[in-house]
Write a structure and sequence with these properties.
The protein is an alpha/beta fold. The chain has 2 domains: about 120 residues, Rossmann fold, CATH 3.40.50.12500; about 100 residues, 3-Layer(aba) Sandwich (Rossmann fold). It has 11 helices and 8 strands.
């Protein structure tokens, strides 16, 4: 039989992409992908290695503008117009002004729009109309206090806190320990619970603990992906997660006044 010529082959369709700048020690790429719709990619780069634990100094170093903007340029050379800085402590350690400076540095480096994890958590709380929260972190108390100060600068009151006191290998914390941390942080006055650190696994805890505690739970990776996806007009996956179903439309951006 004579072979027949193949018809036109169009190739794969062009897909949306989010760029992600991560600290070198980030271990939860797979968790980020769980929020992604099927037609969006993550293009990821990491900051250079640092030989130290997760401390205040560490957070400042992984958020240095030079390091972050070099990463942004590598991502925006391709499809990524929106770039996410996926590190909670690196984006809150220098307060509100530091977070907003970091966003400006990322857009100056070529991002059409930029989101930091801590900025995304503030954006998520504003979208839900929440002003009082409890915070749950894996950090040392010193770093956790800086998160409380950061939220206060956006007019968000912290009514209770709990931390694990860790400075490394945070990705190994089991769900049971994180669930107990969240319960311990909660207070009756808290309208939501903020769970910081992009290296702390939370995806499967959010919906069941929201049902148990009766309030939204906003986690670092969830907020980061939600904020990034809304900038490209996409909805995240995450059945039963309050943020993904109750938040205001895309035109609400960062809170601009405390």
């Amino acid at each position: 039989m004579t072979p027949q010529p193949a018809g036109p082959i169009s190739g794969p369709p062009l897909r949306e992409a989010l760029g992600v700048v991560m600290p070198f020690d980030m271990e939860l790429d797979a968790e980020l992908w769980r929020w992604l719709p099927a037609d969006v990619d993550l293009l990821v780069t990491r900051t250079p290695f640092l030989d130290e634990g997760v401390t205040v100094e560490f957070a400042r170093e992984v958020a240095e503008a030079r390091v972050v903007t070099d990463s942004v340029r590598s991502l925006t050379a391709g499809r990524a117009g929106v770039v996410l800085y996926a590190c909670s402590s690196g984006s809150f350690v220098s307060g509100r002004s530091g977070q907003e400076d970091l966003v400006r540095a990322m857009t100056d480096a070529g991002a059409r729009d930029a989101v930091t994890t801590s900025g995304a958590m503030v954006e998520a709380l504003a979208s839900l109309g929440i002003k009082q929260v409890a915070t749950a972190t894996p950090y040392t108390p010193t770093l956790s206090l800086l998160l409380e100060s950061f939220l206060d600068q956006y007019g968000i009151t912290v009514t209770g806190t709990a931390e694990l006191g860790l400075d490394g290998r945070i990705w190994e914390v089991p769900y049971a320990r994180t669930a107990e941390l969240i319960r311990r942080a909660d207070t009756p006055e808290a309208e939501a619970i903020v769970v910081s650190c992009t290296n702390l696994p939370t995806y499967d805890l959010i919906a069941p603990l929201e049902a148990e505690l009766g309030k939204p739970i906003i986690t670092a990776n969830q907020a980061t992906m939600w904020a990034g996806l809304r900038r490209i007009g996409k909805l995240p996956n995450g059945e039963g997660q309050s943020l993904l179903h109750m938040a205001a439309p895309r035109d609400l951006r960062y809170v601009t006044a405390a």
